[in-house]
Amino acid sequence: MSMRDHFFSVTSIEPIRTCIASGDRAVVEGVIKSYLRGDLDYEDEDEDDPEFREAVEEMITCVSPPKKEPGCWIHVLEHLAQYLELSPDFDLPFNEGWKHSHVWPPYRKLVKRHISRQSRKSLGYLDDGRPFRGRGIDYDGCVFSWLSADEVKELSNSLSNVDASVITDPDLIDFHETLTESLQIVAGQSRDLIAGA
Hints:
Layout lengths: L5 E5 L3 H6 L5 H14 L11 H12 L6 E3 L3 H10 L20 H8 L5 H12 L7 E3 L5 E4 L1 H12 L12 H16 L3 E5 L1
Parallel strand pairs: 2-3
Antiparallel strand pairs: 1-5, 4-5
Helix pairs in contact: 2-3, 2-4, 6-7, 7-8
């Protein structure tokens, strides 16, 4: 399946992790309001999207964090980050144009011998997903992952040192360049990264 990958940075992922299974109804309602202000074109701005509400409630009011976190939580994360005042920033070169999930495996194969073990692990998270508190991702057509500021910095440094000749597939040159540039921006701001598709 080809999905559009996108990134956004936040000041910290820790408040997001804290909200999962917190049971905090104020957070649920705040996230719903953020969603209604930004995403719906309904004339009645109080009208609710039941699927979005269900995803928010599943994330915040679950009794305990699920072992496999639903990939659809990616749709909640932007609004949760806004509600928590984590200054989500989507203005990254990686988000321009279409980046399809199917490019990750060939890209990882090209760079794996030229980057650190930690960078290989971080690329794996960006490709395969990384839960906030569970053990895995329930691939329900969507996926999300995150990297800490230190992981972003390490991956940025590692990919920046990859010689251009390593990217032998012309279709991956732009992918490599925008990925590296975006990681450099986020690393320079010492922010955490959230990725989704």
